[in-house]
Amino acid sequence: MDLKEPLVPTPIPIEKLQTGIPEFDLVLRGGLPRGRIHLLEGAPGTGKTTIALQLLIQTRDDGKKGLYITLSESAKELESTAASHGWSLDGFAVFDIVPIEAQLDRQQSVLYPSEVELGETVRLIIERIERENPEVLVIDTVSELRLLAQDQLGYRRQVLALKQFLQGRHCTTLILDDLTHQDGASDLHSLAHSVIVLEQTERTFGSSRRRLRIAKMRGADYQSGWHDFAITKTNVLVFPGLIAEEHNSDFDRITMESGLSALDELMGGGLMLGTTTMLVGPSGVGKSSIALQYVTAAVERGEHAAYFSFDENFKTLELRSIALGIDIREAVQQDRVGWQRANPSRLSPGQFAWQVRREVEERKARIVVIDSLNSYLSTMPEEKALTLQMHELLTYLNNKGVVTILILAQQGIIGDVHNPVDLSFMSDTVVLMRFFEAEGEVRKAISVVKKRTGVHELSIREFRLFPAGIQVGPQLMDFRGVLTGVPEYDGSTETLLSGSAEAG
């Protein structure tokens, strides 16, 4: 007897409603499922009302009917909130309900049981919904209804009745909950089709950090985990968590040259696309200058480059580039280099990753410089998974065929130099840079100590920064212990670069 394969039911497509926040729609995999009840919960000040207003503004712009029912603030207060973002409430209805208990003197409350108050308020809500017949509805906030309930059973009965009424109208509903009374929160979780959680945390220094996550969404796909978001003067910005494996792309495994033949020889021909290179050395040794050389070479080839600086402002970078004979200002003004000053006290890890993605996906950056890892890690001490987030970002950049240059400053100058953190596992190539003493001067040495994607020189070379550019000299054959900072002299000094030499 032939065994028949079990029939697999065909999934029913879910129609989605755009929220007016494009990046939030990415987290929701297209938007909120239509015709369902969605719970948006978070403590006061987390941004619930702002997100709800964006939803109704999008509804209005799409030519659909929206209704905002507010129990926590008046229509005038809501209008003021919208105006602070430059928005107008014109085009959708706003109905503010003053709870019945607020209209009665406390001494009369014995004559007006709380269950009657709750039922009357729900009746007013239902009447207004029937009158307006909206396609999108916002109720702000359900906490006010919970206050009117004398017991959980009465509260759940009224909320369930409201849910059944809404389901019959094919209306997409967003219910806000400020979590000021936790007793009935679990009831709403079970009654709602989806639950979206907002969170706001205060840092030791700098602006607060906002995050959101989808705790539940029945029958629909979404991106799980926490996602950073920010509320600006004009809109809400959501920064979806990065999943590197979703961004694989095909690209040729070619090398990116620096424009300096000696440096390219040291690197084994150049830096391969889709790899990460870490420049490691003490402060002032020239790590940023080497990175700037690769950026300039990429721009001269007609490629776009991105430079993210945590340590210095653009004026400082410009002065350094001028000293090396490089005009970085012109490249930035012509939009050939995307330069951004990353301020960790105002920046969340998710927002930083999103800025990098925009440079790669929208402006097609082929090289990305992050200067420096020390500042990225040390200026956001409250974050618990910065290393993991950086690893995911680097994997994403590798998958997109980008050459990534990380700068890591070591502690110390000459001799006892050590890493503040060990992040070499993140890199495909590690370039070690050191100060050393010779002929009464502090010199600079460079060497490649690791390269996963091919062969490289094992030599140690001197390099210097001249007004005409960077020069990398021949192998330091006559010295031992250069990387210790105090080398031993074994022969002539002809291999050292002359202070008057031209850049090569």
From TrEMBL:
InterPro entries in the cross-refs: AAA+_ATPase, Circadian_clock_KaiC-rel, KaiC, KaiC-like_dom, KaiC_dom, P-loop_NTPase
Entry EC number(s): 2.7.11.1
Residue ranges of every copy of the KaiC domain listed in the record: 15-252, 254-486
Top-level enzyme category: transferase
Record flagged with keyword Repeat: yes
GO MF annotation list: ATP binding; hydrolase activity; protein serine/threonine kinase activity
Lineage: Bacteria, Pseudomonadati, Pseudomonadota, Alphaproteobacteria, Rhodospirillales
UniProt source species: Azospirillum palustre
Protein name (database record): non-specific serine/threonine protein kinase
